[in-house]
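Example record

The entry below shows one chain as it appears in the dataset: sequence first, then structure tokens.
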Amino acid sequence: MTYKILVVDDEVSLERLIKQRFRKSIRDNKLEFIFAHNGKEALEKLAAESPIAIILTDINMPEMDGLTLLEKLSELDVNLTLKTVVVSAYGDLQNIRTAMNRGAFDFLTKPIDFDDLEITINRTLEYVQKMKQNLKELHQAQSQLIQSEKMVSIGQLVAGVAHEINNPVGFIAGNLDHIEIYIEELLNILQLYQAELPNPSEVLQQQIEKVELDFVIEDLPKLVASMKQGTERIRNISTSLRTFSRSDTVQKVPFNIQEGIESTLLILTHRLKGNKYRPEIKVIKDYGELPLVECYPGQLNQVFMNIIANAIDAIEEATQGYTYEEIKATSKVITIKTEVVDGESEIVNDDNRMEELRLPSNRAVIRISDNGPGMPESVRENIFSPFFTTKSVGAGTGLGLSISWSIVVEKHGGRIDCISKPEKGSEFIIEIPIESNSGGG
């Protein structure tokens, strides 16, 4: 990672001296120095060159001095991790005290001792890095809290709806069994009447023709069968809702991951269906034989929901501006594959989270891919960061994938990764240890 340092000083020779002293760090892309000659120019550079990690500023300069620059920085919505080091003539304690009161992190005296400067820069960068990590953890904790509260509310609502659906559906299904028997008995009696009274009266004959009795006799059993099929479908939806909204216990429990995926797909059916703007989004399932996985089912279902819903969003975004026929010519597909991976995995260096992960040998792997627009590398490398989103204001919180990362990695000791290129679609790879080796809480 390259840290940018903005040097603000009206001494032109300082630029050459700094570049000479730090040439190795500059060549190795560890440090990048940007130079301004006064506070006004520094503010312009700050706006154009963000993110800057450190501002190293002299106090006495033309147009805008260092103290005024510090005051302006406090008024601006700048990066919270940005730190300022002031440089002042030896013994100018009053200016140094004022600078520290205005938010300066450290100070140096002139003439500059470059050994001291290097130590100060390294110490400040360590502090900046620690602050970034703390902020990331804080954002992550905030996002988890927000999402957890949201999911608890949704889970309670969904579970309540599922429970309320079950009662009337059970009543209808039970009555349909009896209705089916009654109709069969009545139709048998009607056939007996027709056999014993082959020549009905003219009035009865007219009524038979009016109601189309032959059609009714043929269609009535079909209606009952259709109603039974409908109630069974409602029951399946209710079961899927309960599966999706499962309340997780303190400990992990054995869970059929493919049932969780199916429940998620059922809930998202309305979004996968075609409409007047585009054909349906097809889902291709390539399920391998998975054993029950020790996990928190409700949380994993949340991961599947986030990723599949994002795939639908990406496909819908990619189809905007095209006609129905143009979209139909290149059918949009989401592919879900599950398999078991056996064997010790390599150490995974996750640069985004600055952690090392060694995954257990037996893992359930879920691959969710789409043939949507894909992502450039600049987006892909940030998708698991809290509050990062490419969606318009109000359309996304930037929490979904960050929460998914936490659930998979921190809660389950697994791994989640994304492979994506522009115009090539995206694939999310989730690896979950089959057997729990820790509490994961």
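Notes for this example: Residues 3-112 form a domain with the Rossmann fold fold (CATH 3.40.50.2300). The CA atoms of residues 45 and 329 lie 49 Å apart.
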